[in-house]
Fold NAD(P)(+) transhydrogenase (Si-specific).
Amino acid sequence: MEHTYDVDLAVIGSGPGGQKAAIMAAKLGKKVCVIDSKSMVGGVCVNTGTIPSKTLREAVLYLTGMDMRELYGASYRVKEEITISDLLARLQHVIGRETEVIRAQLQRNHIELIPGTASFLDPHTLSVDLEGQPSHRTLTAGVIVIATGTVPARPANVKFDGVRVLDSDQILAVDEVPGSMVVVGAGVIGVEYASMFAALGTRVTLVEKRDQMLDFCDPEIVESLKFHLRDHTMSFRFGEEVASVESSGGGTITTLASGKRIAAEVVMHSAGRQGNTTALDLERAGLEADKRGRLSVNEKYQTTVPHIYAVGDVIGFPALAATSMDQGRLAASHAFDEPVRDLQALQPIGIYTIPEISYCGKTEGELTRESVPFEVGISRYRELARGQIIGDSYGMLKLIVHADTREILGVHIFGTNATELVHIGQAIMGCGGTVDYLVDTVLNYPTLSEAYKVAALDVANKLRAVARLTSQMAAAEPSLR
């Protein structure tokens, strides 16, 4: 029996996943709408997450003059007194422009943007509370994509007031650059903001209940970052849980389970996020979220209700804007029977700390546990002409190469432009390239990309030394019998 729906596809949420799902369906000639609040066009990514934090990072680097201190001295600054207004001016400009781009893309593809909040009435029907209007709108859709993203997790023992005690979405609302700060949670978001405020001169204490931060990264890279952050007077409290946070007009006291107490002007709690699904009335659609508000999907991003898909952070790992975009594209393609290839398993991770970290592929620890023979090549920025020019003496690039096949198994980078440089290694690895490709390839001089060449030659020299000695030992064996 044929059904007639108001739209072919309704997308709940206009973040990276929702945008790309909507645009893909529109390219296939489908009637599409996107539902989201006027103030959240672009989702958390544009308004409170990825774009704001990365823009803030660039503003901090520029205004503090940090990148130039190797060349002009430790006291070098572009601006002596940096205010929140200085930081927010660039932030609002970028957010405004990015929102305009998204609106233009949706409009160009004839996608209706409905301002409001959606909830399910049944598996094919949505009720939309329209913003600025007392009424609501009901619409039906053949396919629905849930792309509502996440919100910060708020533990019951922490009283958030939006002034002294903030979550990671509220941190940009502080009135002034604090003199001291406690950051709870040493995940990606916590470490990124901690490094930014430390660069601004804030005395930061990072509290983490685990014994290590960023434990999915290469330990050598993480140690380099910790050394750099300590150099900016950051303190670490690993293996510590927060028992309570008290605030007053003058500041905050964070009490740890071990009994330690930390005084600071501001506390930023960044211990995880949860799916933004509370207001969706999922049960009316036959769906159920887990205890973290996330939805389970199959390899095609379908939920347990076949015509309802979910993409982006709301489905959990890897919860990255870059992967969310492709998830949305693939979900819409599958929903409307458009042939499409699956995502490459090899994906880069970028962490926008100061300095930044990026990697692709395996770590030394993973390969050791898998009993894979490998060799490591290191290149340090201070050995590169470009590293001297830009004043980066601490950056490094690590190549991990299979000892027998010479295949590149991992690329790990710390320092300037790490998140850009990683794509060179990713491309070579994705094509099954070996370290010999880099050894035999000419790279522009002077560039940071030369780090690949230096690291590749380092690996090749080590492998050659092993091969030579192995050959000598094999040749000597008959005479020893």
Observations:
- The mean pLDDT is 93.
